[in-house]
Amino acid sequence: MSFAYASGAHASGTTGNGAATPGAGAASQSASSVQPRSPAGPSAVAPAGSGVPALPGLAHVNLAVHPGDFVMLTGPSGAGKSTLLRLAVRLEEADAGVVRCGGRPVADIPPAELRRTLGFVQQTPTVGAGTVRDNLLLPFTFVANKGLTPPDDAELAGWLARFRLVGVGLDATAAALSVGQRQRVCIIRTMLLRPAALLMDEPTSALDPESSAVVEALTEELNEDGVTVLMVTHGVYRPARRPWRDVRVQDGGVREVAVAHPDGNATGMVAGGAA
Amino acid sequence: MNDPLGMAYIQIGPWQLAVAVVFVLLAGGLSLVHHLKLERDLAIGTLRTFAQLFAMGYLLRILFGLQSAVLVVGMYMVMTWFAARIVKGRVREKGVDYFMPTLLAVQVTFFLVTFVVTGLIIGAKPWWEPQYFIPIGGMVAGNSMNALAVALDRLFSDLRAHRAEVEMRLCLGADRDEASADIFRGALRAGMIPSINSMMGVGLVSIPGMMTGQIMAGADPADAVRYQIVVMLMIVASTALATFIVLHLVRRRCFGRAHNLLLRA
User: 3-class SS at A62?
Assistant: First the structure.
């Protein structure tokens, strides 16, 4: 799954990105219209002439994410890293600009379908009442997912084992699990919808070091299986076994800082560019 | 007992009324001594009580005399509009506009419930006979108003407090109704419970206001009881109906087109 952000692609149509409409799963062309930085430099500057702030606080974002990418979103607090993720799944709506998923503007994709494709993992793991099984099967109780076959207990148990939740039974009360265990249950729950990408908003910030390490290792595993990862982070974690892109969110824009490989080679990137 | 202007009871004259003001002065004294800063509100509240009730009294006298359907409709519009405004004043939510849904909920409830009571149960002729339609409707609107304020307040505060849970469900494919089903139920319950609870204590502790009035006006307590039972039941229905309508209309306004929660923590 590819997706791309472009600020300033509002009604007047200043972006050339509209031409890139690959099918789902194909690589998107990089967003080609780079908004000029405003000389004044405040973070919520609208593209010239529009009079409307673009993505909330994100006036100059152009970012293309390709299938299989592992993107680390870094940058200062309040820069809009989480907002970028929330815009992709439409928990927030942009005032201007466009976010595309598989070439289609996300505004044209039914929310449930969009959110199945781009799995969002919250910062604080949120489980509902009931057992682990109840929680894992929750997505399959929603009308929009009624066409999907719910996984059976064997499949669920397989996921729990894979996520190093061996001691946790499907009949355990979900709310009684540790935060780290809950976060893993939440990631499994998201994965059961077979998303093309995982959008993770500081998924380990509430976790102890051990749980964090497990979640990080598993995320790399899923990425190896082909799941695109976009992770917001404040911490020191960087993927150890997967190539990853370091995208810095700052001053209302994004800057590709580096593309790193597990062997330690880092390639410096040009501002606004894409791999 | 069908003669509201009958003189079978002891009337309260202006001097007796003035003596009643001593009650407020007592409360005001307490406020002064203990620095409660309630003197202003007490004064305004007392003045409003006098002004609003006297106005209502004269208006009703005119209304009952004229028997005009147009005036009854006008009264209905004014009463429901004030009810909606008072709810708005109490809930104080800035993120969502809920005035029109509140007004609609009060109006539908007022009309439906009051029509059933005056037209079908009491059998007033015509069914909008102001002597019945306005006081009964007033009780319906007043109790609906309280239920609406409680339910809306609950809806908004729970959506804010449980934002993470709502968004968790949204991210897993829930629509706005599925994502807020528990919160909707909680708000509906909150709106309905006070009127249900009032059925528990009635007749054990308090003699309800309407019954008190009828008895003091000389009605047979057994007759007054039947009226009061109808009123209790109708209030339960009113709070349920009004709360249900308003929550349905307002909940969708708390979400954007993408089924995204608009209320911030």
Answer: strand
Q: Between the CA of residue A252 and those of A17, A37, A201, B15, what are the distances in Å?
A: 19, 9, 18, 72
Q: How many CB pairs under 8 A join A and B?
A: 66
| Most confident of the ranges A7-16, A36-45, A133-142 | A133-142
B160 CA: distance to closest CA in chain A (Å): 14
Arithmetic mean of pLDDT, A1-8: 73
Residues from chain A contacting residue B167 (CB–CB below 8 Å):
91, 122
- Rounded to the nearest 5 degrees, what angle is found at the Cα of B189, between the Cα atoms of B186 and B193? 145
Ramachandran class of B37: left when φ > 0, alpha when ψ lies in -120 to 50, beta otherwise? left
- Residue stretches of chain B with pLDDT short of 50: 1-2
Tell me the angle at which helices B130-161 and B221-253 cross, rounded to the nearest 10 degrees: 40
Partner A contacted by B176 (CB < 8 A): no
Of the candidates B168, B258, B260, the beta carbon closest to that of A126 is on B168
Which residues have C-beta within 8 Å of that of residue A264, sequence separation ≥ 6? none
Q: Is A104 on the interface with B (CB under 8 A)?
A: no
CB atoms within 10 A of CB B243: 27
pLDDT for the residue numbered A57: 66
Cα gap B208→B227, rounded to integer Å = 11
Residue B65 sits at the chain A interface (C-beta within 8 Å)? no
Q: Using the beta-carbon criterion (under 8 Å), do B170 and A93 form an inter-chain contact?
A: no
From residue A225, alpha-carbon distances to A58, A67, A218 in Å are 32, 11, 11
Domain map (residue ranges) of chain A? 3-22+52-124+195-268
Domain-wise residue ranges, chain B: 1-66, 68-253
> Which two structure tokens, joined as six digits, stand for A209?
């070091």
Give the full edge-to-edge strand order of the sheet including A70-74. Answer: A118-121, A197-201, A228-232, A70-74, A244-250, A253-260, A266-268
CA distance B110 to chain A (A): 35
Cα–Cα distance measured from residue B25 to residue B27, given in angstroms and rounded to the nearest whole number = 5
User: Å from A269 to nearest chain B CA?
Assistant: 33
Residue B39 carries which side chain, given as an amino acid letter? E
Alpha carbon distances (Å) from A48 to A11, A34, A45, A146, B74: 13, 13, 8, 45, 53
Whether residue A116 lies within 8 A of chain B, CB to CB, comes out as yes
Any CB–CB contact under 8 A between B258 and chain A? yes
CATH number of A3-22+52-124+195-268: 3.40.50.300
**pLDDT above 60 (res A152):** yes
Cβ contact (<8 Å) for A91 and B167? yes
* B156, B218, B220 from B225: Cα distances, Å: 38, 13, 9
For residue range A190-206, what is the model confidence (pLDDT) as tens digits? 999 999 999 999 999 98
**Does the CB of B251 have a partner CB in chain A at under 8 Å?**
no
Q: How confident is the model at residue A95 (pLDDT cuts 50, 70, 90)?
A: confident
